[in-house]
Amino acid sequence: MTVNTIADARYAETEAFSDGGYVVTWHSSGINGTGSGIATQRFDSEGNKVGGETVISSAASNDQDYASITVLDDDSYVVVWVNENPYNDTSDIAGQRFSKDGLPLGDQFTVNAVTGDTDDSQYLEYPDITSLPDGGFAVVWEFNDSSSDQTRIHAQRFSSEAQKVGDELIVSQLDSYTLNTRPHISASDDGKMIVTWGDDVNGSTDVLIKTYSLPTTLTFSSVAGDDFSIDSNELTDGKIAIEGKVVGDFSTTSSVTFWIGDKQVGTGEVDAAGNVTASVALSGLIGHGSLTAKLDVADAAGNTGALSTSIDYSVDSGSFLTLDPLTDNNIIDIEESEGTVDITGQYSIASVGDVIEVSVNGKTLTHTMTQEDVDAGGHFSITVDGADLAATDNVSVSIRHNGQEVVHHTHNYTVDLNDPSDVQASEADVVNTHLESAQEFPTSAYFSDGSYVVAWQSYDQDGDDYGIFAQHFDAEGNKIGSEYQLNSTTEESQFSVSITVFDDDTFMASWSNYPDSSGSPNEILGQKFNKSGEAISEEIDFEVSTDSNYQSSITELSDGGYVMTWHSYESSTPVVKSQRFDADGNKEGSEITVNTTEGARYAETEAFSDGGYVVSWHSSGFNGTGSGIATQRFDSEGNKVGGETVISSAVSNDQEYASITVLDDDSYVVVWVNENPYNDTSDIAGQRFSKDGSPLGDQFAVNAVTGDTDDSQSLDYPNITSLPDGGFAVVWEFNDSASDQTRIHAQRFSSETQKVGDEIIVTELDSYNANTRPHISASDDGKMIVTWGDDVNGSTDVLIKTFTLPVTVTSLTKIQDGTENGEESSDWPGWEINMVRESDIAIPLWLRFDDTTNGENGATYGEDYTGNIHLEFTLSNGRVIKETVSVSSDNLTVKINLPANVETIKAFAELKDDALIENTESIVLHSSMSGEDNTWKASEAAAIKDNEGPAVVQTITPDDTEITEGDDVDLSWTVTLNNASSTDTTLRLDINNVGNNGDFTADTDGVFVLLDREGNELTTVNMADASTASLTLSLNPDMPAFSLKQHLPMIQSSKAPRTSPSRQKSRIQVDGKPPQISR
């Protein structure tokens, strides 16, 4: 290729960079207008030009020519050339150093000391340059004196910074030489350089050479890197690396020593090539900025000397200071703001006496490092008030060494003093990118990962009237990609879009379509998309049988199919229609008319968990003088369940614009606009129903702020969604026609239709005059979004606002049953607690335990506890934190502090053998975020199995009746066991008399009756069935106490007559154990 751009280029030289690129220099005529000039061109490692041709000579006239170039160790390069100066009639050698990217480093410099006087026919010509092993360079050139017919060779050595080193050298030995021509210079890595040239020797031209040994030099290229700055990442076992080079004569047995003042801090080795390597402890360098390197040298002749060079360096002290996050999530929350927080960190190069200063909110606290602190690695901890941290969002930490500040670091953090029980709102954002004309009537739906899609109708964006567009957002509310068009058919208008997300994260949109200029939407069209918004079906014509079709909506059913509802007209009368489809989109059955009462419109559908569904709408004529609200339930086959149900209680004016949602327990809530003619008000009313359609509680008012119809105020278009905590939320328009203002309001409810928190003003300014048709959706992770149409800068756009729900317990489920006296978590009853979302701050949680036996059989439930409740917190990063808390037998409620970002909580109750209820008991865990009675959420009961240890007789209590022969009496004993077995237990009875002076079996009728502790007869055993005076009874499981009863008839003993009363004695053992108690 042609290197030059400017014509007449000659005398080129090339030098290579370390990466395979290279640079070329030459001179070209005409560059400077009246003479030659010097240019360069750089190339990459592929041989491609880098940038353009660069003119580097600064003179504007006469000749600059005969350029020579060399690349130095650092990939900078130096160009030298002949420079003829017309202003003072001189001839010199000029030079310029450049960085690898072609930028000048310093100013242009003069190589020679002896200048040529052109008036005396003196000229400097043919310079040649080479790099030197010490990082510098050397230049040789001709000095021509035509008047004396003499030519000399001169040379000059330079440092890497283009500073002259030593004096100018006269290379040729005699000035009388007449032909010292075209010198060349080369250098070796061991500090030698040779100059060659042509010369007149005895009448002929010969090549001469001269060798120079450079002075022995000691230079350094790196102290912990080529920036000579030491930071914490450059330490190895507390030491830093130093690298350098010895050039010239030296002994390979030499070593380099490093000193600070008169203290040696390290030693380095010198290899045969002169490379110096050393590893020096950082501790010796702290507090200084320069060290001295010393080298003893000797040449081949035995001459000795000493070299000494100074090395400047810096220590990046700040890199050795690390601060820990103030809290686990680096957020100061309410609880932390009310207490104290430890500022902790490490200054790993600390010295005794260094002072750590912590400054926050105008206050400064200090800690002086002790020997113990230094030995421990420089760790420190300073306690500050949480209130000071909460008053700002940063804390500064400084290090003072010998009274001077050597480090100053500012640590930023977040302050979040929002109560986790409050709803938190984002700013309102514009959804649509296309801002012209009108974007209206948005709808939205969440995907399983918390991302969501918003769809709306946009005027004239698809080229013909209204079209349907959508935008996707990630779970944090950031737009994913660009907005895109859903409708393929664009003729006339496509409007009134509805979307639903299926369990597989696909979604379907449906809308009304004007196919021509007929004046009414004859078609319902739609399309199915994947989560990324890519169409996975063709545009669908649902082929409904009716004309004038409005407000279609699609609801997924539990079998993967769906039902579509819409309102239409038959004989000019509004009707609500529905059609079921299977999972493949095929129609199942025929269209049906949902309503019975005429004038039905504005239908919504929600599905039950079993595949059934319920439809709500409003119809005219229900209440005599206005519209009313009705519902119709369907089973999973699409059959009507019962009849149409009128749910609005007002008997006049309009109740309209119903919206419906199904809650977690398959109950459902309907809300609607309620106009009250008696007090001229407009409200949003609601009613909750069980799945079978029975009202649950009374009709309730959704809104707190009522519309005064006398002042042209009205509440319109409510929309409802279920929430992951089991409750629901409602949004609606508040219209004030007199002031031409519209606001969007919202209210959250519990599952029992109790208001949670205050009414929310969604729109930020009352001056908005087009806050229209709000829609609300909620995610499983505790977010909800409200979308609406709004007037922004003169056009209607779609706005969105995100609300983060408070952290509440959503479910509490049993993991396992347990046993008494268990030794580890697998033995204990356990539960898992889930919340509506993770909290980014530490929050409290209350746990309470109940006994479902409610003290039956005399139990005191607290006796079951060892006092230990074992907790496992799983954080969002997968980390598991374990903690044990204590409860007492008289207070089985405990408050725990949840760490931030907890996803799940497991609780295990460690139980002992209570010895009170000897059967399988049960235990219930309740949980609450507030500990208030109306906020507890309870799980199913966990069983407590009885300890499997052996049953042992604890007491035998006789009636202690004296017996006289001939009496007819009943005797009884009460027996208690200290552990009821969960299986049948064998009980052995040995019977004899106290005096052993008679055959006891002859005295008794041999019949024993076993009674429970309430006196109910359990079984009868006859001693006559035993061969000896003992018998074995089989006790039922879980029997902690029982009674024995024996009847003695008037029978004489077979032995000699007794003259004193006798006592009967019983010896009892259980499961063959030795007799334990006798009475």
Short description:
The protein is mainly beta.
Looking at this protein, list some descriptive labels.
1079 residues, mainly beta, Immunoglobulin-like, 6-stranded mixed sheet, 4 helices, 84 strands, disordered C terminus, Ig-like_fold
What does this protein structure show overall?
The chain is an all-beta fold and 1079 residues long. Among the domains are: 205 residues, Tachylectin-2, Chain A; 79 residues, Immunoglobulin-like (Sandwich), CATH 2.60.40.10; 99 residues, Sandwich (Immunoglobulin-like), CATH 2.60.40; 137 residues, Immunoglobulin-like (Sandwich); 126 residues, Immunoglobulin-like. 2% of the residues lie in helices and 54% in strands. The strands form 20 sheets. It has a seven-stranded antiparallel beta sheet, with no helix packed on it. Strands 66, 68, 71, 73, 74 and 75 form a six-stranded mixed beta sheet that branches. A hairpin with a 2-residue loop joins β46 and β47.
Layout: helices, strands, pairs:
Elements: E1 9-16, E2 22-29, E3 36-43, E4 49-55, E5 64-71, E6 77-85, E7 90-98, E8 109-110, E9 116-117, E10 122-131, E11 137-145, E12 150-158, E13 164-170, E14 181-187, E15 192-201, E16 204-213, E17 217-223, E18 229-230, E19 239-247, E20 255-260, E21 263-270, E22 275-281, E23 290-298, E24 304-312, E25 314-315, E26 321-323, E27 331-332, H1 334-337, E28 340-347, E29 355-360, E30 363-368, H2 371-375, E31 379-385, H3 386-390, E32 394-401, E33 404-412, E34 414-415, E35 424-425, E36 429-430, E37 439-446, E38 452-459, E39 466-473, E40 479-485, E41 494-501, E42 507-513, E43 523-529, E44 540-541, E45 547-556, E46 562-570, E47 573-581, E48 587-593, E49 600-607, E50 613-620, E51 627-634, E52 640-646, E53 655-662, E54 668-676, E55 681-689, E56 695-701, E57 707-708, E58 713-722, E59 728-736, E60 741-749, E61 755-761, E62 772-778, E63 783-792, E64 795-804, E65 809-816, E66 818-819, E67 830-835, E68 843-851, E69 865-875, E70 880-886, E71 893-898, E72 902-911, E73 921-928, E74 937-938, E75 942-945, E76 953-958, E77 969-977, ...
Parallel strand pairs: 18-25, 27-34, 66-75
Antiparallel strand pairs: 1-2, 2-3, 3-4, 5-6, 6-7, 7-8, 7-9, 10-11, 11-12, 12-13, 14-15, 15-16, 17-19, 19-22, 20-21, 20-23, 21-22, 23-24, 26-28, 28-31, 29-30, 29-32, 32-33, 35-64, 36-64, 37-38, 38-39, 39-40, 41-42, 42-43, 43-44, 45-46, 46-47, 47-48, 49-50, 50-51, 51-52, 53-54, 54-55, 55-56, ...
